Amino acid sequence: IRVSVQGSGMGVPSISIYVNELIQSYYVQNLIRVGSCGAIKRDVNVRDVILAQTSSTDSQMNRVAFGPIDYAPCADFGLLKKAYDTAEAKNVAVRVGNVFTADQFYNEKPLELMAQYGILAIEMETTALYSLAAKFDRKALSI
């Protein structure tokens, strides 16, 4: 298996540039982002691995593309299942669920409401990764 490791910068605009170029110039088929996040749910512990199944956001990226439609970008199930099965086999504390892609690093968000709706963590790139992967019929996973 050929693997290329690439930085993606911080935030939706930055990762959007990298993902577009990887897909359109290098014909990448599978994109796996490994990054950091902040826990929202109280039962998510430090060092738990979160596999982002879906991504909610305050970014306008999909509003620009879809107008009044709320598009819900999600991970590729095959990549998600492989990552989950591998983590389980290696006894890694792993969680699968929704994350929140934020446009601002320091901002007051309704964290309790997000937790109530099952959002596990907050980060800044997953919505863009999953949306662009879907647009170009590619597979993506955010860890």
Automatic annotation (TrEMBL):
GO molecular function, one term: purine-nucleoside phosphorylase activity
InterPro entries named among the record's database cross-references: Nucleoside_phosphorylase_CS, Nucleoside_phosphorylase_d, Nucleoside_phosphorylase_sf
EC numbers on record: 2.4.2.3
GO-annotated biological processes: purine nucleoside catabolic process
Region forming the signal peptide: none
Catalytic reaction list: uridine + phosphate = alpha-D-ribose 1-phosphate + uracil
Gene3D superfamilies according to UniProt: Nucleoside phosphorylase domain (3.40.50.1580)
Keyword DNA-binding: no
GO cellular component, one term: cytosol
Ranges of residues in domain Nucleoside phosphorylase: 2-143
Keywords: Glycosyltransferase, Transferase
Superkingdom, taxonomy of origin: Bacteria
Family: Belongs to the PNP/UDP phosphorylase family.
Name this polypeptide is given: Uridine phosphorylase
Species of provenance: Desulfofundulus thermobenzoicus
